[in-house]
Amino acid sequence: MNLSALVRHLPLDGPPVDPVTVPDSIEGLQDVLGGRSFAGGLYRVHDQAAATRWASEVVDAFPDFVDRITCFGCDWLGGQFALDSARTDPSGQPLVLLFEPGTHEARLLCL
What we know:
Blueprint: H1 4-9, H2 26-33, E1 37-38, E2 43-45, H3 48-61, E3 69-75, E4 80-88, E5 94-100, E6 105-109
Antiparallel strand pairs: 1-2, 2-3, 3-4, 4-5, 5-6
């Protein structure tokens, strides 16, 4: 996962962050950017407390995903982005899902 690309390609709201300082893990992203948003609120990175709260909310709406998702961000429409530990890419990395509250759909994202 190349999380520093997110910082390089989307305008970060607030003080700038050097892309080199963004660790290549969701936990690292949350530590460095948790609570911050991009492009005027288009996308927000959850801090660890918000990630836990939103994972609980998502599982309430999508019970098949209990004990397998890690929420890490949301979009301006309330869609929740999460890693799905039950699905991985060929290298073993968890795939990203978008949970859409308006359509009640979980979409696998191709990154």
